[in-house]
Amino acid sequence: MVLTPIWGGLLLLGRRISDGRRLLRMVAGLAAATVLPLVAFMALRWTAVGQFGLVSFSGYNLVGITASFLDEELVEELDGDSRLLAAEILEGRRARNYRPFGPEEWTRRFYQQYSPNVWRVAEPIARRELTDAPAGQVPPLAGEAVFTINRAFATLSRDIVIRRPLLYVKWVYDSLTDGVGMTFQCPTFSQLMTLLVLSIPVLLIRMPWRDSAPGLELEDRALRMCVLAYVAVSYFLAKLLLIVLVSVPYDRHVLPAMAFLPCVLAAGLFELWRRILAPPTEPRATDGTAGSA
After folding, report:
1. How many angstroms separate the Cα of 242 from the Cα of each of 15, 181, 238, 251?
2. What DSSP line would sit under 19-54, residue for residue?
3. How many CB atoms lie within 10 A of CB 28?
4. Residue ranges, the chain, pLDDT below 50
5. Alpha-carbon gap, residue 61 to 78, rounded angstroms
6. DSSP per-residue string spanning 165-226
7. For residues 100 and 70, is the Cβ–Cβ distance under 8 A?
8. CB neighbours of 39 closer than 8 A, spacing ≥ 6?
9. Hey, is 272 helix, strand or coil?
10. What is the DSSP letter of 164?
11. How far is CA 196 from CA 42, 160, 227, 279, in A?
12. N or C terminus: fewer CB in 10 A for the chain?
């Protein structure tokens, strides 16, 4: 959403619209068309459930990550209800033989703990505390209880991240790296990338025997390709960042974020082979040649 006005401005620049005021008006219009409906929805949600946010279950998502950071030292640093909840979550993780996430740990090994942290450990504990149910019983949830648990998880996760920011940064960085690496596991992306790389030597071999394309046309095509590449890469990275901030880079989340990347490779492949297969042009006559003729 935030990138849409920027993309619009780049596309307009690609069409060589030099009127600064017109460009500013169109970018502002795109920003209003994308931001205002979202803000209205978030305000409506705030009046309905008391939370001004786009993601309904932010606490549920975050506790899947931050629960792995818990150890005895961190639990002692927490206060109030967060400390009590963290102590029980830590015991629940120990019962499943989960060790704490540390600076030297391989982040990918903890991906499999994400869902159990939420649904097998933290959520049953929060249900029992909310309803004062006996140990071993997990009562059903209804109505406001879901939002109360979500807020408790969000508060706990925030307190953990404040006290262990480097662990959270490590999680986000490693997850981003894994998400980017997953692009090469996509068959369509990897096949197009292979074809593109193999086509570049063919273009370099053919170039000496043909005249270069007209400068303005080549510049326009290069500018459009750069805009398309920026849109694809920025969309992928922005969506991937939203994923890893609160979750695990599962393929079902990462693959939709790659929607534009194969398009860029296909467009680049088309432009390369368009240049390779273009018929050679006649050499341009110099002034001396023209004069002698």
Report:
1. 31, 17, 6, 14
2. -HHHHHHHHHHHHHHHHHHHHHHHHHHHHHHS---S
3. 13
4. 213, 216, 286, 290-293
5. 20
6. HHHHHHHHHHHHHHHHHHGGGSHHHHHHHHHHHHHHHHHHHHGGGSPPPPHHHHHHHHHHHH
7. yes
8. none
9. helix
10. -
11. 43, 45, 18, 21
12. C
* Residue 110 Cα distances to 67, 106, 122, 183, 241, angstroms: 11, 8, 16, 21, 18
What is the reported pTM? 0.76
Q: Amino acid identity, residue 239?
A: K
The type of residue at 208 is P
pLDDT single digits (tens) 145-196: 788 888 899 999 999 999 999 999 999 999 999 999 998 888 888 898 899 8
d(CA 175, CA 166): 14
Q: Quote the tokens at residue 149.
A: 């648990």
Residues in the chain: 293
- Structure-token pair, residue 179: 């998400």
